[in-house]
């Protein structure tokens, strides 16, 4: 199979149920999910395989689920059953609780940064938030799988908590936002 098909050279692409412009809100939504997936892949590459086995397991599963989310959103009209469901959202909530128990409660806003995995998790969180906004925009246009929006919302929360845990594991303090920087 060839990688290039030349079918998209005119600025249109295939979605399940037809063709749309490449800047269509549907393509923006699942494209941003793909970008988030790539960021998470970079996180996984930065992790210590021994110390961070749990992170690697969770993030690899999330990468698969993000493909499912993209497939759900790629349907111009619903042709296939949705893949992302409420159980996946609940599982993320469980992981948020699991990792939150490993760090002190948050007292202030936290600046993105710290060790490399933490910084990359924060970047992934920001992209997940953007993906969520793109899905909200798409949902205003027509029917979507609402569980994808909820999944992305929980995912960004999970990535934030994991960023804090990554710093704790590396012995790096979170940098709290200060409004009195003078």
TrEMBL record:
Pathway info: Cofactor biosynthesis; adenosylcobalamin biosynthesis; adenosylcobalamin from cob(II)yrinate a,c-diamide: step 2/7
Reaction catalyzed: 2 cob(II)alamin + reduced [electron-transfer flavoprotein] + 2 ATP = 2 adenosylcob(III)alamin + 2 triphosphate + oxidized [electron-transfer flavoprotein] + 3 H(+); 2 cob(II)yrinate a,c diamide + reduced [electron-transfer flavoprotein] + 2 ATP = 2 adenosylcob(III)yrinate a,c-diamide + 2 triphosphate + oxidized [electron-transfer flavoprotein] + 3 H(+)
Pfam families cross-referenced by the UniProt entry: Cob_adeno_trans
Coiled coil: none
EC class: transferase
GO biological process, one term: cobalamin biosynthetic process
Domain of life where this protein originates: Bacteria
Claim: Nucleotide-binding is one of the keywords in the record: yes
UniProt keyword annotations, A-Z: ATP-binding, Cobalamin biosynthesis, Nucleotide-binding, Transferase
Molecular function terms, GO-annotated: ATP binding; corrinoid adenosyltransferase activity
E.C. code: 2.5.1.17
Domain called Cobalamin adenosyltransferase-like: residue spans: 3-166
Key word Transmembrane helix present: no
Cited PANTHER family: CORRINOID ADENOSYLTRANSFERASE (PTHR12213), CORRINOID ADENOSYLTRANSFERASE MMAB (PTHR12213:SF0)
Subunit structure: Homotrimer.
Family per similarity comment: Belongs to the Cob(I)alamin adenosyltransferase family.
Protein name per Swiss-Prot or TrEMBL: Corrinoid adenosyltransferase
């Amino acid at each position: 199979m060839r990688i290039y098909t030349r079918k998209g050279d005119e600025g249109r692409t295939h979605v399940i149920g037809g063709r749309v412009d490449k800047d269509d809100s549907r393509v923006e939504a699942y494209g941003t999910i793909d970008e988030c997936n790539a960021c998470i892949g970079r996180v996984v590459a930065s992790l210590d395989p021994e110390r961070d086995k749990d992170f690697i397991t969770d993030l690899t599963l999330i990468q698969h689920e993000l493909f499912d989310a993209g497939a759900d959103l790629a349907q111009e009209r619903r042709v296939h059953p949705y893949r992302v469901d409420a159980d996946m959202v609940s599982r993320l909530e469980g992981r948020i609780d699991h990792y939150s128990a490993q760090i002190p409660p948050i007292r202030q806003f936290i600046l993105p940064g710290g060790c490399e995995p933490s910084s990359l998790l924060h970047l992934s969180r920001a992209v997940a938030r953007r993906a969520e906004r793109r899905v909200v925009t798409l949902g205003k246009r027509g029917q979507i799988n609402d569980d994808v929006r909820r999944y992305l919302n929980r995912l960004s929360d999970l990535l934030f908590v994991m960023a804090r845990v990554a710093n704790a594991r590396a012995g790096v303090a979170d940098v709290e936002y200060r409004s009195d920087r003078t």
